Amino acid sequence: MDYVCSNEPTSMIRLAVDEDKDQVKKLSLALHKISPYKELPFSDTKFDMWFNLGITNIQKYVVIVAEEQEHLVGVIGGVCTDMPLYDVTITSEMVFYVQPKYRNLEVPIKLLKAYEYWSKEIMKADYCLVGDMPSKDLSKFYEKLNYTPSIMSYMKRNI
After folding, report:
1. Distance CA 71, CA 88 (A)
2. What is the model's pTM?
3. For the chain, what percent of residues have pLDDT higher than 90?
């Protein structure tokens, strides 16, 4: 869909398609290795379900990719939902990863801008939530793009 496309001589931001599945999975696995959830087992089944929803149910899910010379170098994906107890709709980023060599380029910003477009213009969401991984570098990145800190999560495993 054209609403997320951005072409440059060397990069393109676009909606993911079925043929991207293997490359998106590699990017997701790379994210998993550095995430706060790295101790949890990666689920191929859950990945398949998320990816398939992201390419077939654009009215609730999205998967957007950054392509560089026919190779995917970044991905952002999210879900749109109503907040319980409040009369607002939010989009929540579930996956956001860019290969290290592309992080200082425009790729992360373009991916995030495409995601914001989906959130605001397509989903008409009241809020766009991003940034599940705490980091000073990421805080600077998001604040530069007018995001403000909103929540902090804690996790405890039920054994």
Report:
1. 37
2. 0.83
3. 47
* Best CA proximity match to 125, nearest among 53, 60, 57: 60
pLDDT score for 132: 57
State how far the Cα of 69 lies from the Cα of 102, in Å rounded to an integer.
13
33: left (phi over 0), alpha (psi -120 to 50) or beta: alpha
Average pLDDT over residues 124-131: 77
The predicted-structure confidence for 71-124, as pLDDT tens digits, reads as follows 999 999 999 999 889 898 988 888 999 999 998 778 988 999 999 999 888 888
Going from the N-terminus, what domains does the chain have, and what CATH number goes with each?
2-144 (3.40.630.30)
Q: What is the dihedral of CA 72, 22, 47, 42, to 10 degrees?
A: -90
Spatial separation of the C-alpha atoms in residues 132 and 151, rounded to whole Å: 9
